[in-house]
Amino acid sequence: MFCVCLMVSAQVRASASCSLISAGTLNFGNYDPFSTRDTESTTSLTIRCTGTGRVSYQIQLSTGSSGNYSARTMTLQNAVDNELLYNLYTNSKRRKVWGDGTRGTKVIKKSKKNNFSKTHSVYGQIPALQTSVMAGNYSDTIIATLIY
């Protein structure tokens, strides 16, 4: 008797469509440059995925105008060379900088059964004692990227 092996295989892929449906404003309010306490705030990002199967996704955040994850900066509106340091984190203890997964940064990675909405908190912090900043309104723009 002679046998021939027949290899059978299949790959099942989720048929998903995901989108970032909302991103809140991270408003630190009033910052006192002479306070010895860091200023903290929180906002959220919400994604929605529809389709079949299970979907794995990750959310990355850009560096903003600084081009640097270790020292994100907000810039004084209508001024030159006046920046306020801050950063964004994946957890409430503010120890894991939220970035793109490079240079020591973390991303949010999840896998869920499809047809869901999920809200993720963004934790922000301005370090204390930035005494050289001028009074005024500071801002930055962060791009959130959803990969699935």
- Computed Rg: 21 Å
Count of helical regions: 0
Structural class: mainly beta
User: Which ranges are low-confidence, i.e. pLDDT below 50, for 5 or more consecutive residues?
Assistant: none
Assign a percent range to the helix content.
under 10%
Mean pLDDT: 92
Q: Helix and strand string, N-terminal first?
A: EEEEEEEEE
Tell me the strand percentage band: 35-45%
Largest sheet: 6 strands, antiparallel
DSSP strand tally: 9
| N-C termini distance | 49 Å
Strand line-up of the largest beta sheet: 1-2-7-5-4-8
Shape, please? elongated
Please tell me about this protein's structure.
The chain is an all-beta fold and about 150 residues long. It has strands at about 15-25, 40-50, 55-60, 70-75, 85-90, 110-115, 115-125, 140, 145. The strands form two sheets. The protein has a six-stranded antiparallel β-sheet, with no helix packed on it. The mean pLDDT is about 90.
Please give a quick description of this structure.
This protein is an all-beta fold.
List the helices and strands and how they pair.
Blueprint lengths: L14 E9 L15 E14 L1 E8 L10 E5 L6 E7 L18 E6 L2 E11 L11 E2 L4 E4 L1
Antiparallel strand pairs: 1-2, 2-7, 3-6, 3-9, 4-5, 4-8, 5-7
